[in-house]
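Q: My labmate handed me this sequence with no annotations at all. I'd like to see what the chain might look like in three dimensions before we decide whether it's worth expressing. Could you predict it?
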Amino acid sequence: MIKLVCDNKLIYKTISNYLIQKHLLLTSSNKNYQTVILIYENDKAITLNINGHKTEISLPIDINLLNSQILKKIIDVYFPIGRHKYFPYQRLISSQNNKSMLSDIQNLIISNLIINQEGIDKDNLYNLIWKRDKLIYINKLDTHLTNLKKKLKQELNLKINFQSHNKILRLLID
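A: Here is what I predict for the chain of 174 residues:
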């Protein structure tokens, strides 16, 4: 759920491909974003503005350096979940003493539920997770939701619930 803004098409395509390759572009069903990366360039430097934090890199630039600078900034992006912190780009939920690593599917579920606070259609969430699966088995999604809920309770003592009304799924945090 990264929004990338850059007028230079070559830089835009290069960074987009990097984020896709590193599995950092989390899928969202709407146009809400956890991270906005603005890239500006002038004759002497490229400026990265990642969620309001600016970094200037002198030209000429090695694309690997640019990628590493982006990674350094987004890796620490987090969202509070009760007294815990959710790091979507690390697939991690942590408390002061414990950490819980999330699977890709669990990370997509939590990420989409946090960014879509009003809720997300279960069919849309299913299609985000299993893009190539033609048949929708809501039980498959429900099993992952149950396993995620148990995992966070067991590993972090974090009590979360999911509310589904008219196929709209919402995250509830105790």
